[in-house]
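>> received
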Amino acid sequence: MSSRPVIMLLPYESCSGLELFGIRFAADLLGRGIPALVAAPDATLIAEQCHSRKIPRHTFPVIQKYEPWSLPACINMLRKHQPAAVVAFRSQLMYPLHLARLLTGIHTPIFMFYRIGAGNYMRKDPLHRRLFGHLSAVVPNADHVANKIRQYWAIDPDKVVCIKSGVDTCRYRPDKLRRAALRSELGISEKDFLIGSSGRIHPEKGSEILLETLFDDSGPARDRKDVHLLYIGREYQPGYIDKLKAVAESIGAASRFHVLPFRNDVEAVYSALDLFAFAVTSHETYAYVALEAMASGVPVLVPHTGGMKEMFADEVEGWFFEHRNQGSLREVLNKILHTESRRIKEMGDQARQKIVKTASWDKMMNQYLQLFRKCKIHGI
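>> returned
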């Protein structure tokens, strides 16, 4: 087997769902005996995750957009590792990667796992025609995005390969012991109705909107002392969680609003939930955190937009509301809080069954490996 690694290029300071996916992907390849490493900056959460999971890491600077140092960094990476393939996650990295290939003569296959963005930008100019012509494949995780890319990008349609996100259904699963332990940690009972949301705590993720819609003067949980809201994750800037707590205090929900920091065992949190809610206002293409909740036997509430429309059937495994419509969110939350607990549990069970059947991590990885083999990646 080739010793040339597959490099997951993650030159970011954050460690959100996208970065965690790349880290987990590298770990999976290593577990299969396929050389892999993560290219990421020092002294970051990604570096910490690589260290704790024993994933080899190549030091790469932080890249926000088109910084000039991205080119020498790409050249150094290609020369040092002679990789079997490089996987990038954001389109701006195509430019230095392609130029580095030309300058070094190291024609490493490049894949773009397009997991952020909706593919809406027109990219049919001569530069992008050349760039896309040298990509081995673009891999979105939603049909909605794949169709947009084929429409707006100058790329061979056969190079656009949609692979839906997968979840580790052994790690993310219903668990009564986890449920009891987390609820005890929060100081709430089994009879209380716990709504949760995970990931970056940020205005674009709907953090304030969900809190206010649930508990303000017109909120469906305003007078429901048994309804609690839990956020787990990192605040996007210092002081934002304190701001949310002040909002909760102002609307009389301080004792029912809980925040937990980022933790590696987030699966223990999902088990404690009765509903996962995601009130994101940005154009989210797919909600991996919602898949994790579904695998954990929790029905979900997400906006009916982008690739999220493909995740489940409305009122079967979860509920949809109209994107960026607080009135619609309020209406659906009210409907959920008036739904029998037995029915909510049934929907959670159906959500779990759907993920096991259609979106397991192993099923997803087999599709990626099949794509790598089709593209003749060395060592796979």
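>> Residues 75 and 100 are 5 Å apart (CA to CA).
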